[in-house]
Amino acid sequence: MERSLVLIKPDAMERGLAGVIIGRLQGEGLNLVALRMLHMDRALAERHYAVHKDKPFFKDLVDYIISTPKVDAVFEGRGAVERIRTIMGATDPARAAAGTVRKDFGLDVQRNSTHASDSPENAEKEISLFFTKNEIFD
Ligand code: UDP
Ligand code: MG
């Protein structure tokens, strides 16, 4: 079974959207196997987004992602990574397809409501940053 890390980002937390977004994923048949609320420190945020450390938006992105506590979740299912990316939609809400989470709730390219892993390999690495093995259920 494939797993993916989902983060409900500060813009969605501030508007009370965590439950709605988690509900959409569960409604698509994805299995919720880990859940918590966490206010990341800068070091963890920089590790999570390390692949973007040379991008011009990196510092702003880290400042934003640590601006409020957020909900962290792991979902499991056949093809979960790609299915969840499709449900979330394109990075920029303005370019995201109709009916996607980012189209419906995202505010702009940074404040796009959610993070979702982009490959099964990255998912396993990301999940291990946020959850220990005994915090993930089946
Ligand atoms: N981001 C940004 N400006 C950009 C591109 C991305 O602030 O021009 C932020 C946005 O919050 C995005 C995150 O950086 O979700 C990670 O970027 P990535 O390209 O990995 O997009 P994702 O995988 O989240 O769709
Ligand atoms: Mg990404």
How would you describe this protein?
It is a single chain. The protein is α+β, with helices and mostly antiparallel strands. The protein has one domain (2-135): Nucleoside diphosphate kinase-like domain (Alpha-Beta Plaits), CATH 3.30.70. The chain has helices at residues 10-14, 18-27, 42-48, 58-65, 80-88, 101-105, 120-130, and strands at residues 2-8, 31-38, 70-77, 114-116. Strands 2-3-1-4 form a 4-stranded antiparallel beta sheet. The longest helix has 11 residues, at 120-130. It is globular, with a radius of gyration of 14 Å. The protein starts with a strand and ends in an 8-residue tail after the last helix.
What attributes does this structure have?
single chain, 138 residues, alpha+beta, Alpha-Beta Plaits, four-stranded antiparallel β-sheet, 40% helix, globular, binds uridine-5'-diphosphate, binds magnesium ion
Bound molecules: uridine-5'-diphosphate, magnesium ion
Based on DSSP secondary structure assignment, what is the total number of beta strands? 4
The CATH homology group name: Nucleoside diphosphate kinase-like domain
Q: Could you please say which CATH topology applies here? A: Alpha-Beta Plaits
Biggest sheet strand order reads 2-3-1-4
Radius of gyration: 14 Å
Which structural class is indicated by helix and strand composition?
alpha+beta
Shape: globular
Query: What is the count of DSSP helices, taking H or I runs of 4+ residues?
Result: 7
Beta-strand residue percentage = 15-25%
Order of helices and strands: EHHEHHEHHEH
Low-confidence stretches: none
Largest sheet, in brief, is: 4 strands, antiparallel
Q: What is the name of the CATH class?
A: Alpha Beta
Q: Could you say what the CATH architecture is?
A: 2-Layer Sandwich
Distance between the termini: 10 Å
Share in helix: 25-40%
Mean pLDDT: 98
Our count of domains comes out at 1
